Amino acid sequence: MEFKAITIAEFLQGTIDGDENVSVSNVSKIEDGKPGTLAFLANPKYEKYVYDTEASIVLVKNDFVPEKPVKCTLVRVEDPYQSMAALLELYQQSKGQKFGIEQPSFIDSSATVGDNIYVGAFAYIGANATVGDGAKVYPQAYIGSNVKIGNNTIIYAGVKIYDDCVIGDNCIIHAGAVIGADGFGFAPTPDGSYKKIQQVGNVVVEDDVEIGANTTIDCSTMGSTIIRKGAKLDNLIQIAHNCEVGENTVMAALVGIAGSTKVGKNCILAGQVGVAGHLNIGDKVTIGAMAGVTNNIKEGKIVLGAPAMDHDRALKAYVVYRRLPELRDSLNELQREVKELKAKLNEE
Length: 348
Hints:
Blueprint: E1 3-4, H1 5-12, E2 15-17, E3 23-24, E4 26-27, E5 37-40, H2 47-50, E6 57-61, E7 73-77, H3 80-94, E8 100-101, E9 106-107, E10 112-113, E11 118-119, E12 124-125, E13 130-131, E14 136-137, E15 142-143, E16 148-149, E17 154-155, E18 160-161, E19 166-167, E20 172-173, E21 178-181, E22 186-188, E23 194-196, E24 202-205, E25 210-211, E26 216-218, E27 224-227, E28 232-233, E29 238-239, E30 244-245, E31 250-251, E32 256-257, E33 262-263, E34 268-269, E35 274-275, E36 280-281, E37 286-287, E38 292-293, E39 302-304, E40 309-310, H4 311-322, H5 324-347
């Protein structure tokens, strides 16, 4: 499907510099722009590409002032990044949508499925499960007994949702994710072996949550592991039993949260963050990449490092860490001088 610059500008409530009739049918990065594609300029460090890009249309901020002529058509908007996101959503909606129930698939006779759903081949929907209106369950997905899936939620191929779990409206769960597997609970015995503690709870995922590919969220020992409304979890994340992730919190890939930890709302956890169990992370906390969190964190804090510490202190510690080789040499030199002075004193 093609879109003209004038159509894009009207949709985004923007203005045009250039040919309002130029058309695009795809998108591209500004540095790799091709004719007939739409790109955007949100980060100033990419400005150099706008002068030579082959993209036909580029979204820019309203106050962008070119330093030299550009050959593409500019569409000026308040926020190019948000505008690009809106256009990509429109583009996705323009593509064909899947509906109907493919065969072979299995839907238990006691399950309830809504209107306008899609169930892919080899999908399994268990006893007393509920799938809401407009939901999509892609091939080879497993929906266990008593699972509830909300309206317009997308369950991609190979997702496994264990018994009794609850998924809200407008969620997206990407391929290979596992929701509701047993938490890691074992009791040591006198002979040195471990006895499994049965995990009898579930996972509750509230509305508007996105869960990345191969992410795992364990069921609680009792009660619920909870992912609150609007949270966004990247690929390859581990959320352990009895955890709670707050509203609109985002986590990058390879984050691991140990059992019974509560993460507040509007937090940011960068890649490979590890959080120990039974902790409380306050609202609006930012945790830098590869940080190791072993203590509670108060609201609004920014922490870095392993073990994680306050942002300013961590930066000071890092400066010292970088100078360790020089400090070691200075210490060795000081020890040598002290040894020489002692030897002279002994001679006297």
